[in-house]
Design a protein that fits this description.
The protein is an alpha/beta fold. 40% of the residues lie in helices and 21% in strands. It is built from eight helices and seven strands, in the order αααβαβαβαβαβαββ. It has a seven-stranded mixed sheet, with helices on both faces. α2 runs antiparallel to α5 and α3 packs parallel to α4.
Length: 214
């Protein structure tokens, strides 16, 4: 194989981000989110979530960070048997998300919206009962969310954490703001946990994938 130097990693990242098409109903939810200043996952990240749900045949999913419903719709698009528990501390966000789920004709038995702090809600979920957990909210309690998420995941389940590179600041040691340090602490914590298999991807704002080793 020829040894050809890479040209422009940023262009490759942008090409990968723009490669994915978004269903119309999710695009509409994204537009509402943008109008209200609610940050949503990118289509590239959404495609990752849908693929993971499909590949793992996930049936029970937990999401921290309902937002305007964009990530929830991507998760539920992975297969038509998946049931989503979506947690958010902002009740007004969940009211907006309900419109997105209704427009997508998501049956009531496939969706449960819970208003509350992530850790408090996760603590009330049963051990080993979920196939996939997606964390995209309550940044200040990431380490606690990690612990609770691993507890509720079944063996072979997948934990997905958004913003793992936090605005591209995590790799830069000169960046020491609170948010950046929160994600650095999370990554350092994971390094001390030998029973995990992890992947850190530059997708979107950084995507961390974790599963329990068998």
């Amino acid at each position: 194989m020829l040894n050809i130097a890479m040209v422009d990693k940023i262009s490759s990242w942008k090409f990968a981000e723009d490669f994915h098409q978004e269903p119309e109903v999710i695009a509409k939810a994204r537009t509402r989110a943008d109008e209200l200043g609610i940050e949503s996952i990118t289509p590239a990240l959404g495609s990752h979530l849908a693929l993971l749900v499909n590949a793992t045949s996930a049936r029970a999913i937990v999401e921290v960070g309902t937002g305007a419903g964009v990530s929830g719709l991507w998760l539920l698009s992975g297969n038509d048997q998946a049931v989503l528990v979506s947690i958010d501390a902002e009740s007004e966000y969940q009211n907006i998300a309900k419109l997105a789920f209704n427009q997508a004709d998501i049956p009531a038995n496939r969706l449960r919206l819970i208003n509350g702090k992530a850790v408090d809600v996760l603590k009330n979920l049963a051990d080993g009962s979920y196939d996939l957990v997606f964390l995209d909210g309550d940044r200040e309690s990431l380490i606690q969310q990690l612990t609770e998420s691993l507890r509720v995941l079944r063996l072979g389940g997948v934990l997905v954490i958004a913003h793992a590179l936090w605005r591209d600041r995590v790799p830069d040691d000169f960046m020491q703001d609170e948010a950046t340090e929160d994600y650095r602490a999370l990554l350092e914590k994971i390094k001390t946990m030998p029973d995990l298999i992890t992947v850190l991807s530059p997708t979107a704002d950084g995507l961390l994938l974790i599963t329990k080793a068998s």
